[in-house]
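Hi everyone,

Forwarding the result from last night's run.
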Amino acid sequence: MQKPSFSVVSFVVVTLAGVATLVRLAGPYIPPPPENRLANSNEAYLRQAGHQPIDWYPYGDTPFKLARQTGKPILLVIGTPWSQTGRFVDMAAFSDQDVANYLARNFVCMRVDGNERPEWLNNLLPLSRLRIGFAIGFQGWVLDPKGRLMDFIGRTGSTTPLDKASILRALIEVRERYEGLQNGTLDVKPGEAQALDKATLYEPASSSAAPVFQYGSLLSSSIDRTHGGFPIRGYQTLYPNAWRFQASVGLTSDLRASLDPVLLSPMVDLLDGGFFRSSRTVDLKQVEFDKTAIQNAEMVLALAVAGQIYADPLYKELGQAGFDYLLRTRLSEGGIPSGRIGDEARNRRSRRSSLATPRLRSALNPEEFVWAQEYLGLRVGQNPLMVPYLTSRFALLNSGGRFQLIREKMRAIPRPSEARLEKRLLYVEGRVAARLIQAARIWGDTERLQKALPLVEDLTVYEDGRDLKPEIAPRQSRKHLLDYLAYSDAMLQYAIATGHAPSMQKGLRTLLRAQRLFKTPTSGVFTLTPIGQSRLGARDIDVPEVVDNGWESASAQVIRLFHAYGRLLDPSEGRPLKQVAFDTVARFSGPLTGGGALVAGYFAAAAEVQDDAYILTVGHDAQKLADRFAPKFPARLVVAAVGDVRPDLQTRESGVYVVEGATVIGPLWPENLPQYLTPRLELGFADPSTPSSAPVR
């Protein structure tokens, strides 16, 4: 075969390059595909699919009616705008005409935004997900026309293929199984797995106490001792409640093994502050550039607790950087956006957070460039995404200010703005406000506390008589447990930090309203939306949320908040609230023990209930005294007896008291407090490696 001449080869290469350039330049002028019915949705994940060739429906009665009329199964896609997996599937599969054609012939298609409707992140297979290990940001579920769960299509590990061919093959297999069900050749009962999960969550409690020691041991076994974290099927995400649990109960070696490598990895955003949500690889090098506000706020709190307990400047520095990042995202009209959408390019690098070598060379002098390569991991061969990260504690803590200088120069490199989800959501803002107030108080940082307190004032826009709106839009009337819990939490933390009695009263009224709206007749079980289902729709989804989504589950919040309000009120008034917390702990102690980091929120809350000693200050300077002791006992409640807080004890002699159940000890000298607050060994709250002189938790 004759080889083409050099001139011919050159002509072809130049022509192809020219065509590629024209396509790139003409891109903005090429009209997008036609709109579908989701194009004008006010929910970001639905709008993300607004130009796909798929006949999407938002969740509602209409698609279920259509499924029953046509006999087609339902593809229900639950996703979030802060999921790289969801964006990839949208681009690689759902924008493809072949996939769209197959779906049109064989399925009715629905789409739900899990960021704005968070009940959907956990209400399908709420327990089995601990075994399946699917990523919450993109879930594909197949229901029969009666709304009974049949199958799952989604990411169950870092190697799960989700390209066009894989999605199409999965859809074909599901459709074949559905036809087998229809003609009786496949012996599977639709909805059986979902009904079993629901029944397990509602079944009588097997124990009145959570097996905290056993859980801590199992959590220890899930740590990656090389890379840190708690990887699941080759995938890493942040679990702030697991680290808060370990710090609070004194599991020192486990905390160091699981947390420290994560902080010395690209999961920490050194340029903007805060933390990226996940990594596609166990070694934490292939980060996904999404951020969620709640997860970041809970990371800030976890680092505040751990940093104070162990006097660790790295924890404090990174926690405060995360705090400042969240405050910088505050909208001009008030409120915290729910997250940042990742801006990965085709090579998976971030347009904002990855630093190209030529730009680094131009921004830094030769000595600084070499230092950045060594201590910020900025070598392409070792760090393919070129995201700066601390390669050692030395880089931040002992560099003589070099890190801060180089970081400022890197920040000055022109970068695109963050793509933030600026729609305001109560369940996000309330939880962020509560965690930042807690963290600032634990640090004893008056300046940051004064910046965090106005976040609670931002929440007044959600008030609607005795109820709350999930978002500011006046048309919204749906009620959600997470909104009520977030509001109650923010008001509680505001009251604890300031002694402002009206805030505690508002928080308590909201918590009791939540109990009336969302509590089921089964003790300890709250559903995320009011009980009652339409005749159409998914079956058996009125379930409690018990698994963390990278942040504290609703059931964990119920335990923590009912217990906190219960022990701060007059005992006769607080006893019924504490009983709700006890019932919720007991309800789920059995099925959650082996859940690893995914259920850390529940066990952190259960540990507080079972070892509930707290510090109460009394007298005319009670608030100042409480604020002075809060940094010394970061994992304990430290509160002033003012307003509605323990009125039965406010007439006692001025000083500091330890309260545990019905026992009140004091007033005590500060040096006597530790002996009454050491975690109790019978609950397993002690790590054998922890020195006896370790700070009290």
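The two ends are 79 Å apart (CA to CA).

Cheers,
N.
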